[in-house]
Amino acid sequence: MNERFPPLFRLWHWLMAFSIFGILFTVLLRMTFLDKKEVAAILLKKLGAMGVTLTSEQAIAAAKAIRAPMWEWHYIFAIFLGVAIALRIVAMLRGDAKFPLLKLLRAKGLHEKGKAAIHMLLCLTVALLALSGTFYYYHDALGFAKDSVHWVKELHETLLWPLLLLIAAHIIGVILHELTTKEAIVSRMIHGDEVK
Known about the structure:
By secondary structure, this protein is mainly alpha-helical. The protein folds into two domains: 1-97; 98-196. It has helices at residues 7-31, 36-49, 56-94, 100-106, 109-137, 150-158, 160-180, 185-191.
C-alpha cells in the first residue's frame, strides 16, 4: 500500500535533509580542511617562512578564528534542524506523519519492521544530536561549566557515526524500494501523491 506524503510531511522531510546535510558538511570541513591543528601547523610553517614567529597557542587561536564562520553555519543549519523537528511534531499531531515508535509496533512482517526500526532509530539519533548540541551550545546560560559537560560534547560527536550509518541505510532502502516496486516513492516525495 502506498504511503501518503502530504505537503507538511514533504516540507519536514526536505528541510530535515537540507539541515542534516548542511550540518554534515560543516563537520566534514572541521575534520579536514579546517581542522584547527592542521590550520595551526600551516600558519606556523608559512608565517615562519616569512619571518613571523607564533607560539603554538597563538597559531591555534588564529586557526579557531579562521574556522569560526564554519561554526556559524553549523549553528544556522542547526536552527533549520530545530524547525524541521518542530514541523515533524506538528505533522504527527495533525496525523500527517506517524509516530515512529507506533509505526514500529504496528509494522507487519520482518521487512516492514526493519524499515520502521531504521526510521525510528534515525529520528531518535537526530533528536539526541539536536538535544546534545543545543545543551552544549547553551551550557553557560544553563549554569554549567564547560568542563562539567564535556561528556555531552563527546556524546554529540559520537552520534555522528550512527547517524551516517542510518542515513546510508535510509538512502539505500529508498533506492531499493524505488527499483523493486512501482510506487514512485521518490517522485511522490517531491511532487506529492500525484506521480509526475
